[in-house]
Structures are given as structure tokens and as C-alpha cells.
Amino acid sequence: MADNKRDYYEVLGISKGASDDEIKKSYRKMAKKYHPDANPDNAEAEAKFKEASEAYEVLSDAQKKAQYDQFGHSAFGGPGGGGYTYSGQGFDMGDIFESFFGDGFSDIFGGGRGGRRRGPARGADVRANISITFEESFFGATKSITIPVSENCDVCGGSGAKPGTFAETCKHCNGSGQERYQQQSIFGTVTSVRTCHVCRGEGKVIRDPCTKCSGRGKVRRSKTFEVNIPGGIDNGQSIRLGGKGEPGDKGGENGDLLVAVSIMPHAHFRRRDMNIYLDIPISFTKLALGAEVDIPTMGGVEKHTVKAGTQTGTTITLKGKGFPSVRNARVSGDLYATLNVQVPTKLSEAQKEHLRAFASESGEIVEESKKGFFSKLKDKK
Description:
single chain, 10 helices, 4-stranded mixed sheet, alpha+beta, 381 residues, HSP40/DNAj peptide-binding domain, elongated, Helix Hairpins, 3-stranded mixed sheet
């Protein structure tokens, strides 16, 4: 009779106003304490476990709890009935323990909730590399790139089924993409959910696959894309071509094509951030007397006057002659040209006499030697 059953709140040791979390915590504690696997051949512990499980199954369900609060045990048994009885059938322990310990806990029991039918999914991004010259990175360019990508099969339209046929609803899972199964664990018989092994979670089965794509719905082929490279792009930066990646599944959007740029080094120019650096060889005479020198830039040669007495290692700055900003074409870096004395390796006798005279006028003593290094070392012994 219903009167013989203990109050469900009393069974779990909680008050009638207990929250959902309090109900879960109390049941978890009792389930661990009285579970048959932890109490083999203990009929009393098994009875308490079933009693606690029955109480939890009712009190954890909002609708059943409301009925129980209003009518007590008779809400489930009718007049003179015995009330609600826990049988374990259809009772998903994986759901309970997942709510206790978080998503993924029920994977211990063989799958958990990972078997739900998949919906639209975005296609994967495709990555590629392209090499450009230093000049192309400065001025910008349009380049072509050919890469292998997947696209929907043009014969079956991406369905995977042979033209004139259609994918059928999976009879094993009735199109849900998931299947329930039971197995023994330390908590007893546990009902869990996993991906349907017949349709692999698709909910449909292709009986007569397309001969071109073998039922995959996609084919692999090479495609050529035009890549617009903006002026100012730096080495290692990527250009995104939206929607040019792998096609999505079940109507999902395509992925993107990400093209990483590699810039070949220049014979004279060097880049750092948005600035350009170069070395300019210059004679001692021009530095001493002053002269007009040519400074190459990405836009052509510019004239610059070097004052008399300029020292080697002096850097000339040309504002705005560096790389343009990719984000704002009105903003540019600078160009830094360093003047370095170029010492001649071959001198005529007349040139040497002029240098000796200059050294003498300057009060500089110059000791010339025609002996090599090893000869000098021998003389010192």
C-alpha cells in the first residue's frame, strides 16, 4: 500500500523545500554508500539503494515532483495503488552521474551524449603558402595559387547517393543518430547513449552510393585562386580568402583559405617593421670634402647632399620612404641609409704619394711595410 512507503524526502534525508543541487548531493552520497557493488550479498543495502533511486527518480523530475508534493505516493498508483516503483528500466544512470560530475563523466559507461545526430557544420580552413619578392611586398601584387581542395561532388550534389536514389532513414536508430545500450559497471547496470554504429551519427544510410565520390559526397581536385596581396604586407602574415576552404556538412558554410606569405630577401634593402635599411658605400674623399650622393629607394633614386667632414657610420633618414601600412595606406615607415667608408684595395703610386703627403701634412706618421704577417712575426723572435 502507499501508506507503507517512506516519504521520499525522508528517504534522501532532505527537507521538502530542498533545491535540485541538494537533492542530487544527497542521492549521490546514498548511491555510493548503498550500491550493490559496494555491498555484495547485502540485501538491506540493496533495498536502501533501490529506495533512494526511486526517490531520486521522482524528486529530480519537476513534473513528477509536483505530482508527488500534491498527492504523495498515490499520484503514481491510483486509488489503493502501491505508488511509484523503481525498476531500473529506462533509467539512465549516465544522465545522473553526468549531472553530478559534469559533461564527459558518462563516457566512462561507453559514450555518454556524444551520439546525438549532427547538424550543419562549418567546413575546415585550408592553409597554403606563397613566395613573393621584396618589391611585390612593397607595392602589392596579384598572384595565382593552385591547391588541392575538396568540393561537393557534381554528380550527386554532395548527397553521396547515386543520382535517382536517396539516403534512407537509418532503421537501427530511427534517424536519431544515436543508440542506447546497457553494460555492467561498478554502479550496476548502466544505460548509456553512443553514436549509432550503423549510420555513424548521420541518421541516414546510403544503400546505393555515388560512383564518382564513393558515397562521400565530396571529391578532391586542384583549384586556382587569385590572391590580391596588399602593399606593405610583412613576412609570415596571412591573407584570408573567405569561403574558399573546405565545404561545410549538411548545409554548413565553407571554411576559409589562409595564404601565408613568404618574402624573398633583397640584395640591398632590409626590412624591420615598416622601416627600410640599407648601407651606402662612400669614399673618404667625399665624406671629407662633401658631395652629393645617390640614395636608392623603392620609388627610385633620391639625391642627398653630404656635408664636408661627415663621419663614417652616419645615418641619413628619409621620412615616409619605408613600407606603407597594410591598414592605412597614408601611413608609411622611414628609410635609413648608413654611409660607410669604402677603402680602396688597389692604389697607384701617384695615389700613394698623395696619401703620404696628406698624412705628413696632418702630422700622421705612417709606417708602410711590404712584409706579410708571418714575416713580421719571425722578425720579432
